[in-house]
């Protein structure tokens, strides 16, 4: 599989990047709505090619395949059998381990298009994982199956403009659930919602506060909000150092809708890109080149995926807990001694 992927990336994905860039340039200037209106045809062609090569959804390990197929088990009768069969048809016949997939992900990283072509790109993989774990059969049919098929894209809405939302306890977006649990009203503002501008984006997974009276780690829920819901307003593309990452993009979104290794990798990758830019001189910082765009995206990732400082604090707490126990870990991380009873 590694050999097939290597050839696919170098012989088909990388050469296609120029075609995608030309298509988007002809569609408009960065940030213009026309750049988010249509998917470049070569991307869909690459998806079909990845299917033919057996490179589709290779992110899903054996456990995830079991969970995804299991979303149909509660749907008794022919509908449940059909859904399970449809889901299984999108999953790898011989799932990889996480370590095995990591080697493929390294190869995919050589092209901006490879992960997307193989249906292995964020935020869809994380959203598919959540749906595989928690979706009802109806939700699996409506959302999980189209995502696995590559017919739909999705976005995860967490970050908010008015609070320090790297700490999820500060999230202000409200999710009000009806007494019968059948409906939820979602109200708030989100931004840096990756993928929300994509013309095929059909689903927002929105993190919000559903029980403000609960302790901080138990307050939140994730609401499934159709991207076309009437209360979804002002989906506006945001620019990263002048780049819009069309056609997926990053958006600010206003919601008033009804709905039924993170530290070290970005830092090292950024250092590598910085050295590559230095080697290429002026060509490295020229706006139409790959390096400048890649540097902008990776620098943003050190914030968008959670600031390095937050990850370092979390990692320090986990290691301190392992060595010192819960009480010692709190003192080591916060500098405060546990209160005596």
From TrEMBL:
Question: Could you tell me which Gene3D superfamilies the record lists for this protein?
Answer: Acyl-CoA dehydrogenase/oxidase, N-terminal domain, Butyryl-CoA Dehydrogenase, subunit A, domain 2
One Gene Ontology term of the biological-process aspect is: fatty acid beta-oxidation using acyl-CoA dehydrogenase
InterPro entries reported in the protein's UniProt record: Acyl-CoA_dehydrogenase, Acyl-CoA_Oxase/DH_mid-dom, Acyl-CoA_Oxase/DH_mid-dom_sf, AcylCo_DH-like_C, AcylCo_DH/oxidase_C, AcylCoA_DH/ox_N_sf, AcylCoA_DH/oxidase_NM_dom_sf
A Gene Ontology cellular component where this protein is annotated is: cytoplasm
Keyword Oxidoreductase present in the record's keywords: the answer is yes
Start and end of every Acyl-CoA dehydrogenase/oxidase C-terminal domain?
A: 257-316
Write down the required cofactor(s).
Answer: FAD
Record's superkingdom?
A: Eukaryota
Q: Which GO terms describe its molecular function?
A: acyl-CoA dehydrogenase activity; flavin adenine dinucleotide binding
Which keywords appear in this protein's UniProt record, sorted alphabetically? FAD, Flavoprotein, Oxidoreductase
Q: Which residues form the Acyl-CoA oxidase/dehydrogenase middle domain?
A: 155-251
Q: Does the keyword Flavoprotein feature in the UniProt annotation? A: yes
Record family assignment:
Belongs to the acyl-CoA dehydrogenase family.
For this entry, the protein name equals Acyl-CoA oxidase/dehydrogenase middle domain-containing protein
